Structure formats: C-alpha cells, structure tokens
Amino acid sequence: YQDPSVFYPQNFQGTLKTLSLDQNPMRLTVTIGNKDYSVRVMDGAKMLNALRNIVSPSRFMIGDTVRLYGNIEQTDLGVIDATIVRNISL
To answer: Which end of the chain offers a freer environment for a tag, N or C, measured as fewer CB atoms within 10 Å?
Structure first.
C-alpha cells in the first residue's frame, strides 16, 4: 500500500547538484535531505529568483538552494515534475 498523499503537489527544497539546459524537458538533479531527485521542469514552468522575479535558467549555479513546487511521479519515486522552480540563492 502506498499513501496517495505522497503524489500530491507540494513544495520541496534542496541543493542543486546538476543542471541540463539542453534537454527537453529541462532536467535538474536536486539533493533533498539525503536523497538525490531527478527534476523534470515541465513546459511552461516558471523559473524564479528569491524575489519571485522571472529569471533565465542559465543564472542557476551548482550548489544553489532551490525550492520546487511539483509532484513526485507515481511510476518513479525518484522523479519530481516541477511547475515552479525558485532559486532562493539569487
């Protein structure tokens, strides 16, 4: 039995480990707690800075603290589909 609330959209916060701008959808690897998650940035997702202004993904640097809003995929618990990515280090 898997608790369905795990798959509801929620906030996640962690450290940016990798960033792949050339893939579609764009992919990030973020360390949340002690686990690495692959984050798919969905089409139309907002990329924001700490003041909630829209920024280019190229401004993100490895080691930045990012806050994500999205949901964990039901088929792969190591993947988050994000609709908002906020770099709180900018």
So the answer is: N
